[in-house]
Design a protein that fits this description.
Largest sheet: 7 strands, parallel
Number of helices: 11
Shape: globular
Strand order of the largest sheet: 3-2-1-6-7-8-9
Structural class: alpha/beta
Radius of gyration: 21 Å
Length: about 375
């Protein structure tokens, strides 16, 4: 029996977490016999999506503080309506070509409001297709809490008018959707918890570092990398450090940090074997992004989490605080992070045994594929 045709839209604007999680889900669906087309609209990231799916890349946009709806192209130029109209048309063409049984839209309408210029027309195209494909939204377990009046009500309206289901990629024993989305009761009949979307246990590392520092995509991690570099210098050469800046750190910052790195520090932009490095490390220092935390839970690495909170972001703080309460991490504030504070946390973390277990559901990729296969 031929598996369902799945059309999966994902737009990453700042980091690489969204495309990494979506790629894991898409690969699991492909392995399960689904015919998957994944449409991406951000700057390409090496290795994502995988070669086991059909990949459609729209002209890239990134988050911007200027330009139409806060979007810019990959060269940081503000995009105009002509650019966005052409992108919308390419997305609709890809949808018609794929002729899917199931459409999955990552984040929207809980997030990605900047993409309404193409997603609302996609919703209309889905509604007018016969037979109409099932439409699901795919969201992480912790949402950014809205501050503008009416936003949550608008989200509920779009969900009830257009969507057949809501895939929450989390374990309800860790955090429930209603903790970060106050109107959950109005959409509770459409929610399925999939478990956390974690990778399999990675192989043993081919290179060992005592402490691994990572900053996700790198667009907002410069201060964490710089503070860690200074901590490595103060702590001395008894530990080896690998500092992974992320591909989006500006080149000038990467060069400057490299010039300051002591001999016990390896400074790189990206490590494809990042999960394996965690498996072999004594300690991880990172932000508290979804995918990094899943890697930490799988590998059982000690961790110091410095959640990203600039611009009123709340998601990573909720995750870090919850993990600290469970005894699985040490949480430090992004604002006011000092070398002294980080050095003290490193000493405290290394004095503890590695986490021996957590009891969380990490089978989100497989469970999502099962839900998709039974939806049609």
């Amino acid at each position: 029996m031929t598996g369902p045709r799945v059309f999966f839209y994902v737009q990453h604007l700042l980091g690489i977490g969204h495309i990494a999680r979506a790629s894991r889900i898409a690969s699991a669906m492909a392995k399960d016999g689904c015919n998957v087309t994944i449409v991406t609209g951000g700057i390409p990231v090496p290795g994502f999506p995988g070669s086991d799916v059909t990949s459609v890349m729209l002209p890239a946009v990134v988050a911007s503080s200027a330009g139409f709806s806060g979007l810019a192209d990959e060269k940081s130029n503000a995009v105009d309506e002509r650019f966005l109209a052409a992108r919308r048309d390419l997305l609709l063409d890809a949808f018609r070509t794929a002729a899917p049984d199931v459409v999955i839209i990552e984040a929207f309408p809980f997030g990605r409001r900047q993409m309404r210029f193409e997603l609302l027309p996609l919703l209309d195209a889905i509604a007018s297709t016969s037979p109409r494909p099932k439409l699901l939204t795919s969201v992480r377990d912790i949402l950014q809490q809205q501050k503008k009046p009416g936003r949550d009500e608008e989200t509920v309206s779009l969900l009830r008018d257009h969507f057949d289901g809501i895939l929450v990629h989390g374990d309800p024993t860790f955090v429930r959707l209603e903790e970060t989305f106050p109107l959950t009761e109005r959409i509770s009949d459409r929610i399925s918890y999939t478990g956390l979307v974690a990778p399999p246990l990675p192989p043993e590392p081919t290179e060992l570092f005592d402490i691994v520092v990572s900053a996700g995509g790198g667009a907002v991690g410069r201060d964490l990398i710089r503070t860690s570099l200074e901590a490595a210098r103060i702590i001395g050469t008894r530990q080896s450090w690998c500092l992974i800046t992320g591909p989006n750190l500006p080149e000038a910052d990467f060069v400057a940090l490299g010039a300051e790195a002591p001999t016990n520090v390896s400074l790189v932009r990206f490590r494809k074997d990042f999960p394996s490095l965690l498996r072999g490390a004594e300690l991880s220092i990172s932000q508290a992004g979804y995918n990094t935390v899943c890697d930490l839970l799988i590998t059982g690495c000690r961790s110091i989490l410095v959640p990203f909170t600039s611009g009123g972001e709340t998601e990573q703080s909720v995750r870090a605080e919850r993990l600290e309460r469970m005894g699985l991490a040490i949480a430090l504030p992004e604002a006011g992070l000092t070398v002294e504070l980080l050095c003290s946390a490193v000493e405290k973390a290394l004095a503890k045994p590695k986490p021996s277990g957590h009891g969380l559901d990490l089978k989100g990729s497989e469970r999502t594929s099962h839900i998709i296969r039974t939806a049609v």
